[in-house]
Amino acid sequence: MTMVFYNYIIGGSFLVSLFGSVLLFILRDDSYREKKIEKGSRKFEIQTDTVTGTETGKCSPENDSGDDIIIVGAGVAGAALAHTLGKDGRRVRVIERDLTEPDRIVGELLQPGGYLKLAELGLEDCVEEIDAQRVLGYALFKDGRNTKLSYPLKKFHADVAGRSFHNGRFIRRMREKAATLPNVRLEEGTVRGVQYKTKDGQELRAYAPLTIVCDGCFSNLRRSLCNPKVDVPSCFVGLVLENCKLPFPNHGHVILADPSPILFYLISSTEVHCLLDVPGKKVPSLANGEMANYLKTMVATQVPPELCEAFIAAVDKGNIRTMPNRSMPADPHQTLGALLMGDAFNMRHPLTGGGMTVALSDIVVLWDLLRPLHDLHDAGSLAKYLESFYTLRKPVASTINTLAGALYKVFSASPDQASLGGDFSTGPVALLSGLNPCPLSLVLHFFAVAIYGIGLLLLPFPSLGCMLIGARLISVYTMVQRFPLICSASGIIFPIIKAEGVRQMFFPATVPAVYRAPPVD
């Protein structure tokens, strides 16, 4: 039986009132950002050490190491960016703290929209030869019921689908591909501004007209380039299940458990990764056995029967890992000669697997912007194009960010009947997969689902209780005290939208930076 799964249309309740608040946000948002840009326009300086230009923005010839671009970090964003800019003939130096294969428990799902961006960058072969698994959609489970939601892939080439894999293998493949270009250098070192220390302890300096910082969620250069507001809503507990089959092949599995979701997905042909979301910043202790007991008594009972035995075996094996889940809106300082990208710049809850899609989309935007700029030493032109980047990335990035925040909240268990809705799938799955990352589609879909949900409540015969629930879907602010759950959803989405920038997200054509003309040769 198909389950009514648009549990997340609790988000519809907040969006019913969205347009009523948009104009206020635009006015407040724009005035704030204009002041911030004026204040933040400065060259990249981190105390005494940095990759920077002179006061005029021109890199001193005597200090120029011959690099056009320095990239700090060689993760997904850094490695992909190095290959993309390098194949255009740019001289790229990449400085990475550790060039051995990473071992992480996130960054393992590439949405179909992210795969399209990967192909646009010419990196689609990086998901080959790493035992990556095709992902065709999601299977959702709640209270013994389940439903399958497939990606809308009919109009795309047969190769287009999601991919799940070991994060480290994917990064290794991209680093290897970037290193094949003669004008790209990958070096292992710890960056401290312009100074960096190599693996053998040698202190070196590097200069370039453009520095792109992609040093990940633990970035130590972030504070000089943005206003970081990092939130940690929850932690992931990860373990690997071996030699078991998922109930729905080639689908990610989401269990809407109590108190928050559990994910199962293949990372190789023989391994299923389980990620359990634990709300808050603390998790049960691993050392004293509290974690194992929690997993067996509180979690195992909510795992689908087909996976329960393998889940218990993985807990007994003891290879349990944890990591905090971070979210951070993009709030950059306009900084001469420097740019943040990847998780160093913008994070969202990893539940929806949108991080790599956003990073690769950002790289496509930056790649297109830098193409007409033959001389990156022209600090004035470079600054204008980097300003355009922050606007042009918004529609895709902010849609995925907003949806990630909303879905995390509403995928957490709730007894509120008003959170139930209709069984639409194509629209929200297209948004989630990155195939249609359009802010307007996000808004219209939530309106449609909210109206559909009210219709289901009132048919075939409306009752007083159903009419009250329908009223709750429409009237958010007049029932704040009585129905705080609905307002809590609004409280997540509105701050995300405001932080992302309402004008840039919904009305990018009104931002002058969109219309930068190519410089005259």
UniProtKB/TrEMBL annotation:
Required co-factor? FAD
Stretches assigned to coiled coil: none
Alphabetical GO CC annotations of the entry are: endoplasmic reticulum; membrane
State one molecular function term (GO).
Answer: flavin adenine dinucleotide binding
Q: Name one GO biological process term.
A: response to hormone
Primary localization class, coarse: membrane
Family label? Belongs to the squalene monooxygenase family.
Q: Where in the cell is it found?
A: Membrane
Give the reaction(s) catalysed: squalene + reduced [NADPH--hemoprotein reductase] + O2 = (S)-2,3-epoxysqualene + oxidized [NADPH--hemoprotein reductase] + H2O + H(+)
Output the lineage of the source organism. Answer: Eukaryota, Viridiplantae, Streptophyta, Embryophyta, Tracheophyta
Pathway where this protein functions: Terpene metabolism; lanosterol biosynthesis; lanosterol from farnesyl diphosphate: step 2/3
What kind of membrane protein is this, topologically? Multi-pass membrane protein
Q: Where do the Squalene epoxidase domain residues begin and end?
A: 208-466
Question: Keyword set for this entry?
Answer: FAD, Flavoprotein, Membrane, Oxidoreductase, Transmembrane, Transmembrane helix
The job of this chain, per UniProt, is described as: Catalyzes the stereospecific oxidation of squalene to (S)-2,3-epoxysqualene, and is considered to be a rate-limiting enzyme in steroid biosynthesis.
**UniProt xrefs under Gene3D superfamilies:** FAD/NAD(P)-binding domain
Catalytic activity, EC: 1.14.14.17
Q: Which InterPro entries match?
A: FAD/NAD-bd_sf (IPR036188), Squalene_epoxidase (IPR013698), Squalene_monox (IPR040125)
- What class does this enzyme belong to in the EC scheme? oxidoreductase
The protein's name: Squalene monooxygenase
Q: So where does this one cross the membrane?
A: 6-27, 442-462
